[in-house]
């Protein structure tokens, strides 16, 4: 055994203590760490011929890399839709690496059953019934990709084509309809060989980011009975608008389509009694995407993909030779997602849910919603700020009477917060998205104070 490696084996408990102490120090300083770090110049060093040992590597990391890392796990990083990691989720994540299970089969470990239990818990959290099975993937982009891959297989079933064997070309032109899809849906269509240009956007309700159900029905009717894929959006990133899922699902009585719902963070509206109506009908979807590294506050990378058609999922992703019969019953997990070997990413979610339950996560969600409303109310009173939509859930979308990139740059340089830009109905705008378990109303006030200071 390499001498450094042997020494690390002997000193493992001390090493873990050192890492623990350092992690505690980092987390303790998180509220005061700059939300966005100034990124130093990058000068890669050559591969070390002989290593420094784990303690040496930790030292190197602390000196060279940690100063350039952002405070994105902290309370005022409001860019994109960014969660942090609750204490229990972090413990679960540490133990994921500690046990290093390849969570694919029940032959040698109960890890797969832990994932199944976690999926069941998530199903009840979001009000999904038993007809939905679920699988862990790396993020919402992968969840959308897997859901749309199952939808692609379903089109084949309707048209008498075996897409998994014959390829997507055998389907002819595929039609995908959506109101205000997330960029990752286009990426998924590119990866799936359907093509980005096959997505036809459907008119939205006036002043909204929710699809107009009548326009969707007209677009479906124009297909003359040809099956299609509809991507419904439950929580758009700009203004957190929700398609009317029940109205869309009801269109299946007259038109054949696969209903995929991108509920990456919007699914968490189900946890708030006042907002659960926004995702009414989620259970009617054929496939559902929910991100977990956003509002469940587990570390990257975790999302779940739910579907009612596990048989078609197996048809797409089975890892056995095409001439063998498809896996039946509860298939090993490498028959269900793009990965074969995979980490037990369910463990962090399992810890979070075991530790805080539905009530604890409801509290995070309602507190984040309250913080968004607080910021919205404060900003509405700042001269030169205009809200571009009412605060529906956890995002404040607003524009300012000056250069948006310059303002965001000043916000980032302050270290106190991080916000990201967008364009909403042609207007350059700013988004402040609340999804971190640490964020309090006082953080919303601090961001409001900062913005009014910079704008006056
Ligand atoms: C974040 C997000 C995605 C993509 O999620 P990743 O985890 O970054 O892959 C997809 N859809 C919506 C609505 C999102 O908010």
TrEMBL record:
<keyword id="KW-0456">Lyase</keyword>
<dbReference type="InterPro" id="IPR015424">
    <property type="entry name" value="PyrdxlP-dep_Trfase"/>
</dbReference>
<dbReference type="Pfam" id="PF00282">
    <property type="entry name" value="Pyridoxal_deC"/>
</dbReference>
<feature type="modified residue" description="N6-(pyridoxal phosphate)lysine">
    <location>
        <position position="294"/>
    </location>
</feature>
<dbReference type="GO" id="GO:0030170">
    <property type="term" value="F:pyridoxal phosphate binding"/>
</dbReference>
<dbReference type="InterPro" id="IPR015422">
    <property type="entry name" value="PyrdxlP-dep_Trfase_small"/>
</dbReference>
<dbReference type="InterPro" id="IPR015421">
    <property type="entry name" value="PyrdxlP-dep_Trfase_major"/>
</dbReference>
<dbReference type="GO" id="GO:0004058">
    <property type="term" value="F:aromatic-L-amino-acid decarboxylase activity"/>
</dbReference>
<keyword id="KW-0663">Pyridoxal phosphate</keyword>
<dbReference type="InterPro" id="IPR010977">
    <property type="entry name" value="Aromatic_deC"/>
</dbReference>
<comment type="similarity">
    <text>Belongs to the group II decarboxylase family.</text>
</comment>
<protein>
    <submittedName>
        <fullName>Glutamate/tyrosine decarboxylase-like PLP-dependent enzyme</fullName>
    </submittedName>
</protein>
<keyword id="KW-0210">Decarboxylase</keyword>
<dbReference type="GO" id="GO:0019752">
    <property type="term" value="P:carboxylic acid metabolic process"/>
</dbReference>
<dbReference type="InterPro" id="IPR002129">
    <property type="entry name" value="PyrdxlP-dep_de-COase"/>
</dbReference>
<dbReference type="InterPro" id="IPR021115">
    <property type="entry name" value="Pyridoxal-P_BS"/>
</dbReference>
């Amino acid at each position: 055994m390499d001498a450094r490696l042997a020494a690390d084996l002997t000193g493992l408990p001390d090493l873990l203590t050192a890492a623990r102490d350092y992690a505690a120090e980092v987390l303790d300083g998180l509220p005061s760490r700059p939300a966005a770090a100034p990124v130093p110049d990058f000068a890669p060093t050559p591969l070390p011929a002989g290593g420094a040992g784990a303690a040496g590597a930790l030292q190197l990391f602390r000196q060279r890399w940690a100063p350039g890392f952002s405070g994105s796990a902290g309370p005022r990083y409001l860019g994109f839709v960014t969660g942090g990691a609750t204490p229990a989720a972090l413990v679960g994540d540490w133990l994921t690496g500690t046990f290093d299970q390849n969570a694919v089969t029940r032959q040698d470990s109960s890890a797969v059953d832990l994932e199944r239990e976690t999926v069941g818990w998530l199903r009840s959290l979001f009000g999904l019934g038993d007809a939905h099975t679920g699988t862990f993937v790396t993020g919402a982009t992968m969840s959308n990709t897997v859901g749309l891959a199952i939808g692609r297989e379903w089109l084949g079933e309707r048209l008498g084509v075996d897409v998994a064997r014959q390829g997507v070309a055998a389907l002819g032109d595929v039609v995908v309809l959506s109101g205000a899809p997330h960029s990752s849906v286009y990426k998924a269509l590119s990866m799936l060989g359907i093509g980005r240009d096959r997505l036809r956007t459907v008119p939205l309700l006036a002043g909204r980011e929710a699809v107009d159900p009548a326009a969707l029905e007209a677009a479906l009717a124009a297909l003359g009975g040809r099956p299609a894929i509809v991507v419904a959006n439950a929580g758009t990133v700009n203004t957190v608008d929700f398609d009317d899922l029940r109205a869309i699902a009801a269109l299946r009585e007259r038109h054949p389509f696969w209903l995929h719902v991108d509920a990456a963070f919007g699914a968490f509206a189900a946890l708030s009694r006042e907002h659960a109506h926004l995702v009414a009908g989620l259970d009617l979807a054929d496939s559902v995407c929910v991100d977990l590294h956003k509002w469940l506050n587990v570390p990257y990378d975790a999302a779940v993909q739910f579907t009612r058609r596990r048989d078609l999922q197996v048809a797409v992703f089975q890892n056995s030779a095409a001439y063998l019969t498809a896996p039946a019953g509860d298939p090993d997990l490498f028959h269900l997602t793009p990965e074969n070997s995979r980490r037990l990413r369910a463990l962090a979610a399992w810890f979070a849910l075991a530790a805080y339950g539905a009530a604890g996560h409801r509290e995070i969600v309602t507190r984040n919603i309250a913080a968004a409303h607080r910021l919205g109310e404060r900003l509405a009173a700042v001269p030169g700020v205009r809200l571009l939509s009412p605060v529906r859930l956890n995002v404040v979308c607003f524009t300012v009477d000056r250069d948006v990139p310059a303002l965001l740059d000043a916000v980032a340089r302050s270290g106190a917060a991080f916000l990201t830009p967008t364009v909403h109905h042609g207007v350059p705008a700013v988004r402040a998205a609340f999804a971190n378990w640490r964020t309090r109303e006082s953080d919303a006030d601090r961001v409001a104070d900062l913005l009014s200071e910079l704008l006056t």
